TrEMBL record:
Record flagged with keyword Transmembrane helix: yes
Family, per entry: Belongs to the short-chain dehydrogenases/reductases (SDR) family.
Gene3D superfamilies, A to Z: NAD(P)-binding Rossmann-like Domain
Bilayer-spanning residue ranges: 12-34
Protein name, as recorded: Very-long-chain 3-oxoacyl-CoA reductase
Keyword Hydrolase: no
GO molecular function, one term: oxidoreductase activity
One Gene Ontology CC term in the entry: endoplasmic reticulum
Key words, A-Z: Membrane, NADP, Oxidoreductase, Transmembrane, Transmembrane helix
Length: 313
């Protein structure tokens, strides 16, 4: 070491830091996605007979309901359309031979929580999946969001109020029993630059922070709290129909994410999304303005295409 000049020592220290960072990231990913799901497997049924999923008749929510039913839980479906609720309930009962209960509720409305609380009061809920969420119909500048007041208010109510109020309904009983699982579905948009989705991404940042605090307060009382921050997943909301590695089906996504409960309290839920978020954030950290320009350009292109489509329609 004595023969090295100051610059070489600095270079060596930088190299060691980079290698350490890469090794740490690899170990972390291997533990989270390979070892953790085997050694920390959660028995959801032992947490309580029922699992409640909001926004559960399609996409990610429906797959959580199916996965929890496959693990032996009876399922409470809370969602908007009564026909879809009935169809999903009977599909789950037939496929998994479990009981279901449906509760119709529109999370973009106020004043639904007293009724929901009454309807689920006599059920031992061991798992709560706060999945319901509303996004923009297409990426748009904040002041130009169509039907501004209504859109903003619906997003805040469905994305933030629902998570808070549903947790308030279900958590006290879990705490009394000393066990339970709360899974909150956030979005990768809150942890990478997300221009033209500002309100949605900010509302999901709330879900992330809310989950973090809840985990700190209640993990010592036997409650597992997990925040899932997905990247693109095929669904009505994303508008993506054909599955790819970076945009899996909801089934593939949930199979991966649910395996991480008990291993990590905050996760993107799916290995390729973890790589994507790391790459974007590394570019953002190193070339801040370039990353923002790149993302903004891509969102503006999506916006232009969407507006063209709306005009044609
Ligand atoms: N898909 C993605 O790429 C992606 C990425 C990141 C995060 N997420 C998050 O994942 C969650 C699920 O998204 P998804 O893509 O699976 O959505 P989705 O396929 O569009 O399904 C949404 C579900 O929520 C219900 N729902 C919608 N608005 C509702 C309301 N106001 N009140 C009650 N129920 C309502 C829908 O029922 P109806 O059909 O009856 O309306 C449906 O069951 C959301 O929180 C979303 O922000 C999704």
């Amino acid at each position: 070491m004595a023969n090295y000049g100051a610059l070489e020592k600095l270079g060596l220290a930088f190299l060691i830091a980079v290698v350490f960072y890469i090794v740490k990231s690899i170990v972390n990913l291997v533990y989270t996605y390979i070892i953790g799901p085997v050694v920390n497997k959660v028995d959801f049924k032992s947490k309580g007979k029922w699992a409640l999923v909001t926004g559960s008749t399609d996409g990610i929510g429906k797959e959580y309901a199916r996965e929890l039913a496959a693990r032996g839980c009876d399922i409470i479906l809370v969602s908007r359309s009564i026909d879809k609720l009935k169809a999903t309930a009977s599909e789950i009962e037939n496929d998994y031979k479990v009981n279901t209960k449906i509760v119709q509720a529109d999370f973009s409305e106020e004043g639904i929580y007293e009724r929901i609380a009454k309807e689920v009061a006599d059920h031992e809920i061991g798992t709560l999946v706060n999945n319901v969420g509303i996004s923009y119909s297409y990426p748009e500048y904040f002041t130009d969001i169509p039907d501004w007041e209504n859109a903003i208010s619906s997003m805040i109510k469905a994305n933030m109020v629902s998570v808070t109020r549903m947790t308030g309904i279900v958590l006290p009983d879990m705490v009394k029993r000393g066990k339970g699982v709360v899974i909150n579905i956030g979005s990768g948009s809150s942890i990478i630059p997300s221009p033209l989705l500002t309100v949605y991404a900010a509302s999901k940042a709330y879900v992330d922070k809310f989950s973090e605090g809840l985990d700190m307060e209640y993990s010592k009382k036997g409650i597992i709290v997990q925040c899932v921050l997905p990247g693109f997943v095929c669904s009505n909301m994303s508008g993506i129909r054909r599955a790819t590695l970076m945009a899996p089906t909801a089934k593939t996504f949930v199979k991966s994410a649910i395996g991480l409960v008990g291993t990590t309290s905050k996760t993107v839920g799916y290995f390729p999304h973890a790589v994507f978020v790391n790459v974007i954030n590394s570019i953002h950290g190193t070339f801040g303005r370039f990353a923002v320009w790149l993302v903004t350009r891509s969102m503006e292109t999506t916006r232009r295409k969407a507006l063209k489509k709306y005009k044609v329609k």
